[in-house]
UniProtKB/TrEMBL annotation:
Keyword Nucleotide-binding: no
Entry keywords, A to Z: Signal
Ranges for domain Outer membrane protein beta-barrel: 11-187
A Pfam entry, by short name: OMP_b-brl
Presence of keyword Iron: no
Signal sequence segment: 1-22
Official protein name in the record: Outer membrane protein beta-barrel domain-containing protein
Length: 187
């Protein structure tokens, strides 16, 4: 009986000692950093290209161009921006060549709806240049929506009305409309 009690006591002590040693076992580990993606940043410099069409009364012309600008988030979610665009417009109307360049300086005011969506209004003034025709002052008013597709790339769709400062022929505020889609790289 004594041997049996002694055996049980030794076994119990061995189990308790083994458990205590396991609790003291030190394994070096490096904690994983806690990281949360910050979302797309609309602040800063961007540049890109766009293409689309200008719609006049009874005919359509093609548009291709480039843009460069800078955005500032002045108060969440309000964005203010300044953008320059240079576009080439081509087409003919009743045999008249309409090929010309259009250059604008635009102001943008927008709202960041989500980290990946920006809705904005645009107003700009510029000049239209055409061979054998005097340069003339033009303006555009409209808006658009821009979607972030990667950490640095966004796509946008924009619709503006175009007017001519020197147009005395008609009293319309807009002489044409322009619809474009574009891609921008944000630096």
């Amino acid at each position: 009986m004594f041997v049996r009690s002694l055996s049980l006591g030794v076994a119990a002590a061995a189990l308790l000692v083994g458990g205590a040693q396991a609790a003291d076992l030190i394994i070096p580990t490096t904690p994983q950093p806690i990281y949360e993606a910050a979302g797309f940043s609309w602040d800063g410099l961007y540049a890109g290209v766009q293409g689309g069409a200008e719609f006049f009364d009874g005919f359509t012309a093609g548009v291709v161009g480039a843009h460069v600008g800078v955005n500032f988030i002045v108060a969440d979610p309000i964005l203010l921006g300044l953008e320059g665009t240079a576009e080439y417009v081509w087409g003919t109307n009743n045999g008249v060549d309409l090929n010309r360049g259009e250059f604008f300086v635009n102001a943008r005011v927008g709202a960041v709806v989500t980290d990946a969506v920006l809705v904005y209004a645009l107003a700009g003034a510029g000049v239209a240049t055409q061979e054998n025709v005097d340069n003339r002052g033009i303006y555009q008013l409209g808006g658009g929506v821009e979607f972030a597709v990667t950490d640095a790339v966004s796509v946008r769709a924009q619709l503006v009305g175009l007017g001519d400062f020197d147009n005395n022929a008609n009293n319309d505020f807009f002489d044409a409309a322009k619809a474009t889609v574009g891609v921008s790289y944000h630096f």
